[in-house]
Every structure is written in structure tokens, then in C-alpha cells.
């Protein structure tokens, strides 16, 4: 057990560098013998997953993918990935997609090659998370990623964590099973903090500065946000991501989730974590130290760099991401956050400080509201308003002894309540407009 879940000064036994001085054991032996590191990719067909596959295919001597998991929504892509990577096992969460996956695998492999083992069902990704490998990349979207996160940690795998929701909804559960340095963050902001934190000791950290692009609606007032459409919300100015995180970036709920994630990963109090709006997404986050020095990590926005660091830690993968051309003029801007237009960040801080089941309620209510917004059933500002109402109704949870059933029950309640309130909000909006 550790207070700081991701600490660049602490190396989990599986993460020793491959130099002869390394003294790791078990699966770490692979990196010391120069053999590729075995990786399991969960959520391989998504934005994070496909970029992770790119990183692996570019570095065949460094990484080898043993297994892939997805929901089952993109079986042709999954089959093609399995074939290109030569994986042992492929898993889908939705059993009804198995016939289509079998057909896609047959088309990708032909008749001469043996097909990989197939797993199906809601626990398939969790099973793969505990399968023999060095590092598990959790690139599943949503709090459904919690069980695989816990399984990977309990099995002693290094966890390259993109699925922030699992940490946020199950913070104390993750803390109880994670070894020191066992998690390497993949979220670009937390990867930046991880790298900047190498610049001093924990006692020398004064503040974490988490940067936010501000999303597509930066600079708008709350009134100007009332009528924005899903299409507008999906047009993120700097990052190309999955639908949920893209809408969360527009409401800045994603930034709120990231503040909770930073608090849990680095054990820094909420009052010492500040969000700074930075439209260019060039500086991925910063650490202010007690002597007044601020260290920033920067680079063109491209998730392949933090993914490669997550897979390869503690080594850097050469040419993992693009670099700036410093011979060309460019300028970067920084603004304070408008908390009136984007109340999600202070709301998330309150929820994070409450702890217990409150973060699970916040996240689950938000996932429901995002779905309702994308389906045209809830106005944009209704997302955070509804989430705030559900959180308020949930009250102050018991912060001790959190269990997985507690989290699941809180999520079920929050989803149902958010759906009810979203319907009311939509009806009220329609009546007001009539
Ligand atoms: N995208 C980014 O740039 C970015 C940056 C920072 C952090 N993150 C975080 O990374 C995570 C993934 O985001 P994303 O943008 O890559 O999402 P995404 O594009 O929507 O992809 C989600 C992936 O998860 C799979 N999946 C869903 N439910 C599953 C289940 N029950 N079992 C196994 N796989 C399942 C999906 O499979 P199907 O394709 O079959 O549906 C897909 O492969 C999120 O937590 C997000 O907050 C993303």
C-alpha cells in the first residue's frame, strides 16, 4: 500500500531499466535479456488503444502484445489488430458479437494460420488483466474499467493507466492493492506531472498546475453555452479522442476528473492543485516547487508519447511523439479558469474531498448525462446541473471501508437518478422554449 500511487522516484519491481544494473525478477527478466516486454492492451480499438497499437508496431523489438480486449463494437479492427500483432488471446465484453468476431478473425487470418484463443463476456477484460504479461494498458472507457484495474494490480502487473475513471470511482480500493510505483499514468496531464515531479522530492512540491485546453467553448459565458449542439461539443480544438472524453472536455468535467486523479496519484491536497487554461495544449501540466521553480512538460499534443512512456517506463521510447520546431515563431497563452461558466471543476474538487462513493456518483451521473446530451435528450448546461443535483442528493458518504459492491450500488443509483432528473430537465427546457 502507498500514499502516492504513481511516483517517478519509486520503481515497481517490474519496471527496472534493461541496463545490467537492473535487478528485477519474473516478468521483468524479459526487459533485462533484451526480449520484448509483454503487453496486454484493454480497449485496443479505441483512441488510446489504436495509438498504443501504433507504438507497439513501431517498436517490435521493445514490445510484444500478448492479448487484446474490446467491447465488440469494432470486430474487423480488432481482428486485424490481433493478426498484425500475433496475439495469443482476444477478448470481447459483449458475447453477442462473438460470431461476427469469429468471421472477422477468419477473414484476417485465412485458413493457414491458427486463430487466437477467444474470450467473451463482461469479465473477459478482467481475466486478461491478470494474465501473464509485464504491463497492462487500461484504455477502456468508463468506470467499467475498475475491475480490470484491480485485477492487473492484484496480479502484480505494471498498470499503464489511461482509464482514469477506475481510479476516480475506486480510489481507496486501488490504493489498497497498488504497490509503490506500480501505476504509470497515461493521461497526458498526469504523465506530464509524473515527469516534472522527477525534478524534486515530494516535500519540495508546492503545487500541481493541471493545464486545460478549455475545450471548444473556451471564452463563452454560461448563457452562451445553453444551446450548443453535440456536433459542436465533439469538435475538440486540439485532441482527437473518444466521444465521452470529448464531451467531458467540452464541459470540463474531464478536468475535474483529472484533478481527482492527480490528487489520488500524487497524494497532493485539492487546495494545492490548480487548473490553468492553456488553449494550445503544448504544456501538458506543471509542478511548482517550494523554491519558486516551476517545471513544465511540453510537446505537440499527441497521446503516443505518454502511451509510450507508460508502456516503456522507466525507459523513454525513441521518437515516440513529434517535437516542436523551435526555429519557428509560436506563442502559448495561459488563462485562469472561468468557474462560473464551467462549474464542473470546483464541483469535482468537492466530490473528491468528500471521498467514499461521492466520486463514483459524480462519474456515473455524468456518463448518463453525456449519453443523454449526445442523444439530444439533455441540453449542454443540463449535464453539469444534473450531475450537481445527483451529487447533492447523495449527500456526504461514509468515507471509510469502501467496497466494490458499495461503488457498484452507488453507480446504479446515480445512473437511475441522473436519468430521471435529465428527463425533467429536458421537459423544463422544452416548456421554457415553447
Ligand atoms: N483518447 C484520449 O486521447 C485520452 C486521453 C487521456 C485519457 N483517456 C482515457 O482513456 C480511456 C479510453 O478513452 P478513449 O478516448 O480511447 O475511448 P474510446 O475511443 O471510446 O475507446 C474505448 C475502448 O474501450 C473498449 N471497451 C468499452 N467497454 C469495454 C469493456 N467492457 N471491456 C473491454 N473493452 C471495452 C472499446 O471497445 P469497442 O471499440 O469494441 O467499443 C474501445 O476499444 C478513457 O478513460 C479516457 O478518459 C483518453
Structure description:
The protein has 434 residues and is an alpha/beta fold. It folds into 3 domains: 13-186, NAD(P)-binding Rossmann-like Domain (Rossmann fold, 3-Layer(aba) Sandwich); 187-300 and 324-343, no CATH class; 355-434, Orthogonal Bundle (Rna Polymerase Sigma Factor, Chain: A). Helix content is 43%, strand content 14%. It has 17 helices and 12 strands. It has helices spanning 29-32, 47-58, 75-85, 98-109, 124-129, 146-154, 164-169, 171-177, 188-196, 230-233, 243-251, 253-266, 304-312, 344-354, 358-374, 380-394, 404-433; strands at residues 37-42, 63-70, 89-92, 117-120, 135-138, 158-161, 183-185, 205-212, 273-277, 283-289, 294-298, 335-336. The protein has a 7-stranded parallel β-sheet, sandwiched between helices. A 5-stranded mixed β-sheet has the order 11-10-8-9-12, covered by helices on one side. Strand 10 (283-289) and strand 11 (294-298) form a beta hairpin. Helix 3 (75-85) crosses helix 4, helix 12 (253-266) packs parallel to helix 14 (344-354) and helix 15 crosses helix 17. The longest helix has 30 residues, at 404-433. The radius of gyration is 21 Å and the shape is globular. The site of NADP nicotinamide-adenine-dinucleotide phosphate has 30 residues, from helix 2, strand 2 and helix 7.
Amino acid at each position: 500500500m502507498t500514499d502516492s500511487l504513481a511516483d517517478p522516484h519509486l520503481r515497481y519491481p517490474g519496471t527496472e531499466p534493461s541496463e545490467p544494473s537492473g535487478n528485477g525478477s519474473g516478468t521483468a527478466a524479459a526487459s533485462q535479456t533484451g526480449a520484448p516486454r509483454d503487453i496486454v492492451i484493454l480497449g485496443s480499438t479505441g483512441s488510446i488503444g489504436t495509438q498504443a497499437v501504433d507504438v507497439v508496431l513501431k517498436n517490435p523489438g521493445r514490445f510484444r502484445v500478448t492479448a487484446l480486449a474490446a467491447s465488440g463494437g469494432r470486430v474487423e479492427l480488432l481482428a486485424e489488430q490481433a493478426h498484425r500483432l500475433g496475439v495469443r488471446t482476444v477478448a470481447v465484453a459483449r458475447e453477442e458479437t462473438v460470431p461476427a468476431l469469429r468471421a472477422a478473425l477468419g477473414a484476417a487470418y485465412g485458413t493457414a494460420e491458427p486463430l487466437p484463443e477467444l474470450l467473451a463476456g463482461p469479465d473477459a477484460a478482467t481475466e486478461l488483466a491478470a494474465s501473464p504479461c509485464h504491463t497492462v494498458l487500461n484504455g477502456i472507457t468508463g468506470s467499467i474499467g475498475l475491475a480490470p484495474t484491480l485485477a492487473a494490480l492484484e496480479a502484480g502487473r505494471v498498470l499503464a493507466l489511461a482509464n482514469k475513471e477506475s481510479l476516480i470511482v475506486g480510489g481507496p480500493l486501488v490504493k489498497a492493492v497498488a504497490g509503490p510505483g506500480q501505476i504509470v499514468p497515461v493521461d497526458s496531464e498526469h504523465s506530464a506531472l509524473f515527469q516534472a515531479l522527477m525534478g524534486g522530492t515530494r516535500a519540495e512540491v508546492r503545487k500541481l498546475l493541471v493545464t486545460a485546453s478549455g475545450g471548444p467553448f473556451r471564452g463563452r459565458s454560461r448563457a452562451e453555452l445553453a444551446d450548443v449542439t453535440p456536433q459542436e461539443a465533439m469538435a475538440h480544438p486540439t485532441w482527437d479522442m473518444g466521444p465521452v472524453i470529448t464531451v467531458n472536455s467540452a464541459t470540463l468535467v474531464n478536468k475535474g476528473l483529472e484533478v481527482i486523479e492527480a490528487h489520488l496519484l500524487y497524494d497532493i491536497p485539492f487546495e494545492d492543485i490548480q487548473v490553468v487554461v492553456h488553449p494550445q495544449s503544448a504544456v501538458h501540466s506543471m509542478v511548482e516547487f517550494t523554491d519558486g521553480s516551476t517545471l513544465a512538460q511540453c510537446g505537440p499534443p499527441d497521446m503516443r508519447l505518454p502511451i509510450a512512456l507508460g508502456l516503456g517506463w522507466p525507459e523513454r521510447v525513441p521518437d515516440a511523439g513529434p517535437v516542436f520546431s523551435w526555429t519557428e515563431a509560436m506563442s502559448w497563452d495561459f488563462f485562469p479558469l472561468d468557474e462560473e461558466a464551467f462549474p464542473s471543476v470546483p464541483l469535482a474538487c468537492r466530490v473528491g474531498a468528500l471521498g467514499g462513493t461521492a466520486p463514483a456518483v459524480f462519474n456515473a451521473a455524468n456518463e448518463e448525462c453525456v449519453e443523454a446530451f449526445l442523444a439530444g435528450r439533455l441540453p449542454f448546461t443540463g449535464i453539469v446541473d444534473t450531475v450537481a443535483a445527483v451529487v447533492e442528493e447523495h449527500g456526504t458518504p461514509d468515507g471509510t471501508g469502501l467496497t466494490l459492491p458499495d461503488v457498484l450500488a452507488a453507480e446504479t443509483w446515480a445512473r437511475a437518478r441522473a436519468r430521471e432528473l435529465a428527463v425533467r430537465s429536458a421537459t423544463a427546457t422544452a416548456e421554457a422554449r415553447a
